[in-house]
Amino acid sequence: MGFEIDAVWGAMPRLMNAVGVNFRIAMISILLALLGGTLLTILRSFKIRIVNAVIAVFMSFVRGTPLLIQIFLAYYGLPALGLRLSPQAAGILALSLNSAFFVSEILRGSLPSIEDGQIEAATALGLRPRPIWSKVVLPQLFRKTLPMLINEATVVLKGTALLAVITVVETLRVAQQIGSSTFRPFEPIVGAAILFLAMNLVLVTIGWVFERRFAKERR
Amino acid sequence: MTLDPTVITDYWPLFVQGAFLTLRLAAIAFVGGMLIGAVCAALSLLNIGPVRAVITVYLALMRGIPFIVIVFLVHFGLPAFGMRTPAIVTGTVALTLFAGAYYVEIIRGAVEALPKGQWESARAIGMSPVAAARHVIVPQIISPSIPPIVNCTMTMIKESSVLSAITVSELTYQGLIVQGNTFAPFEVFITVALIYWAITMLFHMLAQAYDRRFGASTGRSSRMSPIAARYLSIDGKSGT
Amino acid sequence: MTGFALRTTGLVRRFGDLRALDEVYLDIPYGQVVSLVGPSGCGKSTLLRCLTYLDPPDDGFIEVGGDWLGRERLSNGTIRRRSRRDIDRVRRKIGMVFQALNLWPHMSVLDNLSVAQRVALGRSEAEAESRARALLDRLRISEIADAFPGQISGGQQQRVAIARAMAMDPEILLFDEPTSALDPELVGEVLRLLKEFAQSGMTMLVVTHELAFARDVADRLLFMDRGRILADGPPQQVITQTRDRRVRDFFDKVTAFHPKFMQAAAETEDES
Lengths: 219, 240, 272
Fold this sequence. Notes:
The complex is a heterotrimer.
Chain A: H1 5-45, H2 49-64, H3 67-77, H4 87-110, H5 116-124, H6 129-159, H7 171-182, H8 186-215
Chain B: H1 6-9, H2 12-45, H3 49-64, H4 67-80, H5 87-113, H6 117-124, H7 129-159, H8 171-182, H9 185-214, H10 226-232
Helix pairs in contact in B: 2-5, 2-7, 2-8, 3-5, 4-5, 5-7, 6-7, 7-9, 8-9
Chain C: E1 4-15, E2 18-29, E3 33-37, H1 44-51, E4 59-64, E5 67-68, E6 71-73, E7 79-81, H2 84-91, E8 94-97, H3 109-121, H4 125-138, H5 154-166, E9 172-176, H6 184-199, E10 204-207, H7 211-216, E11 220-225, E12 228-233, H8 235-241, H9 245-256, H10 259-271
């Protein structure tokens, strides 16, 4: 059978049309995860014992079970609870919820690296808790955790490929479709792999640009 | 809503079979991956340009491509080059290659974290490179590597669920089979999730027990001011 | 209502069995410059932290510009705790310059000065910025408005911290060891700056080791030990005429090793 590089290029136009699906789902999920993860972290800082215990259980579940199963639960399982979602919506729900917990864990890990004095200075100036979070804590937290957050974003992006399994017509799914119609399954997958690498590179570059910007603030 | 108990009462042997295959896959990926990891880490530490470049490409591919795509690459790639192999073999190969990439970084990171003088002093007193590695380097990297290796192995257990996509009959695949028979997806996937959760919790607890016994204490040495703790800590009692 | 910028009554702070503050009574009228000295661990820093309510006192009362901070005593004698929101409101009347400065590293100097004006005082962006620029001008550091704290010198950082506190137009400025983190050649410069503020009528409470400042600039010198104010009066009087043995010992030790002060003391003796 062999490997025909032309078959890879032949599959590219259709694959590239699907790249936008992955990128869009990833971006929406990442933004939701950042928002959710941030709110979750603030909620945890209130130190309400029951709330934190519940969050800890969910955290353990999300980290202890495969993302694929979480996707299945969102798509196949939720209808049993009366919530029927489209494959894309279920995918976004699973990815962003999963990632929100990881984001919260990343942020929490870096909280103690913010100096006490930063908070004390803000408090002494009479800032209320909300601006202390929004002006002092969170901006520093995002700067400190940027490399880890970018890494998490690439994890989400890679996670979008799993949505092929619940029939979202994204890059991998299109590659499979091309494969079954041409009887050359390998080459389109190679094409998909190349495109995922490229998308990853775009994300990492975006992160690098941000990091460069923040680096200027330091000595 | 009522739960369908037959999912468990009638089909529990499938879940058990699936769970065992999942554990077997993870075990093989662990052994094979550690082998790849050790060899690649040693090779890349030798600092031979082309060798290092090949390893870098390998790591970049494994980290940049979604695991499910890697699985299909191996699954369709081996036959494309004339190697007809059953799904269980291609699945194992994919998982092992994937695991190896993570182990390389763990091992390499542990070696690079050692003070530079360790290697040089061993060589200076006349140890051969192999002897220096065996008696000086390896004993020192084992302990710090164990937590990340356990962590990574847990990841492999979770990632192995992706092999269901190429019909490897591990836990997730068995879940899909039971789902097809019972049309009770909620019960099935909750059951599957709980089994994965139990397995990873077990590993997690082992890692914690190890940490308590041998790990360095990681307690914050300085006391946080109560005002700052209101924002910067998530445990303990609420601030005054 | 009172003529005092700051007044404390019976301030107590306990850490376990230790009384870090042991019934501190203190009145500071508007326009007065007070210098607070004492051996390390005497309660100076605790006092400043209690005055800003970063470390709430266990007992006693604080009034800032006639407003109760944290707890109030009603005319019928009952004591009421104020809400966190109210504490934050009254805190704005106190400007605190921390020993560690605690500038926010992720904001430009201008933002460090204007954020609190906007979100805590509700000033408009233009208003906050012009106030900030005026202060930077006054402190002669207008050229670093757009720099980040990590990019400027220690002396400049010190001025930014002072400007940040002053931007809120507080009733009183508190300084925690303003010169201790500075290179020796910068100390004089900061002391000159404080002298300028003093002459402009700013109310200040300065915790310091610099007896030269205490003697030359301050209107009043407090000596603290073991959580109590042991001496209180015009600086020269406290330094030279105090009868309390602990106070004597302290000044004897410090003056013996402090050339700048010895010189100053010698000059005073010449004059009298």
